[in-house]
């Protein structure tokens, strides 16, 4: 399977969201998918960090406010 050139359509984004750890702050070391929704709301109001992490947090914010976080749980690597 060829990897899409546009990351918006990359199915691996969800796997990365489920397995990437927060690199800084109060929740450093937590899996992004386990970050509490109020923390993501705070980022949404203050501004997400630049780059890949910001895109991941913004995507996770949308997933959580729409009640879809259950889609990430099966993707967590043990």
From TrEMBL:
Question: What domain of life does the native source organism fall in?
Answer: Bacteria
Any single Pfam family the record assigns to this protein: QSregVF_b
Protein's UniProt name: DUF3820 family protein
Origin species: Sphingobacterium allocomposti
Which taxonomic lineage is given here? Bacteria, Pseudomonadati, Bacteroidota, Sphingobacteriia, Sphingobacteriales
